[in-house]
Amino acid sequence: MPFSAKRCGVNFSPPSIVVIYEDKDSGKMRKRVIPVRNFSQFSDCGKAAERLKHNARHRDYLETVSLSQLEKLHLLLREHLRGLTLEQSLTAFRDGDPGEEDLNKLSDEDLAQRKAQMDEVFERNRKQKGDPDFVYDLEVEFPEVENQGACSWDEESDDGF
């Protein structure tokens, strides 16, 4: 292992992972900026982190960085792409993936805050009739989800329902 990662972070513009590492051969501290390509607000952070960790160009520099840390950095990038501020992204980072958060367990105060954040992002991304890129009847094809298990609702029951 010729490199030892000391710190990791993100750049929002352009989207990239920044690694401060020690070059063990020379003993010097260096910085490597790794661009995050083909990543959007809808990307799977786990798959993106795994792809980056196993990338031949960056593998040696990321060897000492855990996959969960890379996943969290991708989560910060994704939340920024969704329109959240740095403070909101860090809140999402501390609280885990907001898509996986159980909102039923939140206090009324925290729930109201999460709803206000969602409303703010919704309003920012909403297209209205006056917008130049507004399309009236937009049809979108969504990719098939891999490894989607069967749902019990899809099964026919013996009750005749």
UniProtKB/TrEMBL annotation:
GO terms for biological process: cell projection organization. It is found in: Cytoplasm, Cytoskeleton, Cilium basal body; Cytoplasm, Cytoskeleton, Microtubule organizing center, Centrosome, Centriole; Cytoplasm, Cytoskeleton, Spindle pole. InterPro entries: CEP19. Coiled coil: none annotated. Pfam families: CEP19. Keywords: Cell projection, Cilium, Cilium biogenesis/degradation, Cytoplasm, Cytoskeleton. The keyword Cytoplasm applies. One of its GO terms (cellular component) is centriole. Its main location: cytoplasm. Belongs to the CEP19 family. This is Centrosomal protein of 19 kDa.
